[in-house]
Amino acid sequence: MKRESRKTIALLVLLFFVPLAVWGQKNIPLVLENESIRQSGPRSPWSNPTATLDGMTLTFTFASATTSEVIIINQSSAQTVYSHSFESSAQLSIDLSEVCSAGINYLIRLNVFGAWWNGEFTVEETLPAPAANGTIVEQDSVFYQLQGKNAIIVPAYIAKRNILDYPDTLVIPSQISYEGVWYDVTGIDPEAFRGWTSTSIILPNTIEYIDYLAFCLCENLEHFVLPESLVGIGNIGLGQFTLGTSVFAGCYSLRSVEIPEGIRAIPPSFFEECTSLDSIVLPSSITHIGKTAFSQCTSLTSIVIPEGVTILESGAFSVCTSLKTIELPKSITLMESGCFTGCSALETIVVPEGVEVIYSGLFRNCTSLSSVVLPESITSIKTYAFQNIPDSAHIYCEAKEPPALDKDAFNNYNCTIHVPYGCKETYQQAAIWSKFANIVEMDHGTDNGSSSDETGVSSIVLSEEAARYYDLQGRPVDGTQKGILIRNGKKVLVK
């Protein structure tokens, strides 16, 4: 074939396919308002900007990233319907659906590098109409239910379908398109991904809520990032919610979860039976941890509850069998029954001042417990609160008046009870407390709060007091922990 013939065929192919590439788009010519600005030096535009209209989306493209100002004027009424300055960008898009109407002529004024460009456009009379509310759309094995301008992720059974192929990595888009209309992906309905085998599910920063059981029993899911768009309102007793109950329950491979600042509550059973979850950082915005929120997280070894949390609901950390340390903030006022039941590795804990009741089963079956500090505010200790703690445990009770003690709060009386100086006899005569053989006084002396009793604890000091500290295993610590530590070769109780 001759070279000229090949050129002719190539040109015909190009002419045939180019219109397909811009089908549905309308190019809008832009004219420089003042031609003399081209000679104005460094403020001159590098090249002409371009504008295209695709449905109700107006897009500008520049030769390089730049700041710009856009003004849109209704030519019939001469009113400005849109005005905005944009940050430096090589491309920007504007959704005209809120400001423009079909069949009306509009004037664009675009400022780039100090030069004004003008253009005109008319929105088409026949624009795609949004689908009826409740319409189900499938994309990449995910089912979306359309509601207004939003798309909500729903479980397959809503569409009366089964999912046959679970992707290993699933990336949820921020928008989906259906019949020429774009919808924002804003929510995840109950059980939407229940039982999926994906190892990674990535959510867009448009998600406003995740409802109950959304990811439960996703047994292969390893890491998860909750988007910042969840706006930070928990669902426990706080009215509006963004996170439902049991969202990750039974995600046995889940090792880490990133929770954004702004989330105010960890809902009930949120991480229940996440047996591989070995660490988690809670945001400072948290005020509430729900019932069995971390129950049976058997790989969790330590956790810091942020200042501002006031309530731990029943069973919040129950049967966390590897949990050795938990740091409670001063803001805690209520720890409901069974919060730490079955935490068989838990060694020390300091109950914050302000807590008045040690509820039923709070430390039941904490078989490694070596020291517990109870504040002066404690007034009562309920049934099974300390059942099955070891004989070697030391209970430091700072209440001068013996708290009311249920008869089954302890099931052995061999642990050592430490009471305020001068209160030993009062405790020995109090109901139930009289059963303890080892009640000793904390002798507060004048030497920097030093004290001494039969346990080998030589002093009581305030947390963060300057000194070199070690834990009971001889490892250096910073002294901000609470409980029994080693300081200057002696055991001290850090409060």
Describe the fold and architecture.
The protein is mainly beta and 495 residues long. The chain folds into four domains: 22-122, Immunoglobulin-like, CATH 2.60.40.3080; 131-319 and 329-344, Ribonuclease Inhibitor (Leucine-rich repeat, LRR (right-handed beta-alpha superhelix)), CATH 3.80.10.10; 347-425; 443-495, no CATH class. The chain is built from two helices and 36 strands. Strands 1, 2, 3, 4, 5, 6 and 7 form a seven-stranded antiparallel beta sheet that branches. Strands 8, 9, 10, 12, 13 and 15 form a six-stranded mixed beta sheet that branches. Strands 24-26-28-30-31 form a five-stranded parallel beta sheet. The protein is elongated. Strand 33 (469-470) and strand 34 form a beta hairpin. Residues 1-23, 232-240, 445-456 and 462-466 have low confidence and may be disordered.
Our count of helices gives 2
Q: Give the CA-CA distance, first to last residue.
A: 93 Å
Radius of gyration: 33 Å
CATH superfamily of the largest domain: Ribonuclease Inhibitor
Q: Low-confidence parts lasting 5 or more residues at pLDDT below 50? A: 1-23, 232-240, 445-456, 462-466
Number of domains: 4
CATH class of the largest domain: Alpha Beta
- Based on secondary structure, the structural category is mainly beta
Largest sheet data: 7 strands, antiparallel
The coarse silhouette is elongated
**Approximately how much beta-strand content do the residues carry?**
25-35%
Quick check: average pLDDT? 83
Q: Which percent range fits the helix content?
A: under 10%
